Amino acid sequence: MLSVAKRAFSRVPALRWLLLAIVLLAVYQMRVLHLDDRLYYWLTTPAVSQWAPGSLLGRAYQVQVDAKVVGGLQNNLSGISYDEQRDQLWAVLNNPEELLAMSKDGEVLARYPLSGFSDVEGVTYLGDGLLLLAEERQQGLVVVPVPERAGALFREDYRSLTLGIQREGNQGFEGVGYDRARDRLFVVKEHSPMKLYEIRGLKNSVRGHFGLEILDHEDWIRDSVFATDLSSVHFDERTGHLALLSDESKRIMELDGDSGKLIGFRTLDSGFAGLRKAVPQGEGMTFDDQGNLYIVSEPNLFYRFGRG
Predict the structure, then answer these.
(1) Residue 44: what pLDDT?
(2) Which fold has domain 49-307?
């Protein structure tokens, strides 16, 4: 009887190690699948059917261009923005630095080398024939007129703003989005930590009426963003909402542009809107004036989603 008890007791440490391994595996799977993020969302946010009327992501989408390989590019397709005045898209490559004019079908219309620029990750159309390019490592924001002829663009020819906030290598500015009505530029920092900045008075300052105000929306990140990184941001003029793209979490989150309140989200896994495969490494995102969604993915994939 005593020997049986000893054998049972000797198994206890092994059982504890087994239970610990199971717990660690479960925690790892939760983080990989972001089950904890989704549980948090489900517990704190209304159901999809209760999204705000007219929200960006509340209506059904259908993929119209699925993982199209952008011709002539090898890699590093990054930010993208819609230009309604020309009814086309602007995109950037971050190595080598280049500005691309693209059709809404993902065809390259023109290419403009960016001389003197460094690690360009984001682009947004400011209106009035102006583009803003974001440099990741040095956290530079450069205002560039829309090119009217072929050829390189030289950084020293244009006005720029460098913030230099928490500069930690290749973890700087990833995306930019602009509110034209109120002259507000939204900038996202990828991670370590994730950041969402609002810069007020940017275009007014470029015009000579200097008066910048920089806000750190740390509370919006804390309360409304459930993702491991941020790779792009879009401000929607029609709804006043922000859309934030996460590459690692394969998710778009929609926030109120004034309060930062989470309105809803969509995952970019296979099956969303008829996707054959999940969107890999989504780096840039924009919406056009009809609410259609465009995503570019490294190394060189293009997606378009039409609204139902």
Answers:
(1) 47
(2) Neuraminidase (2.120.10)
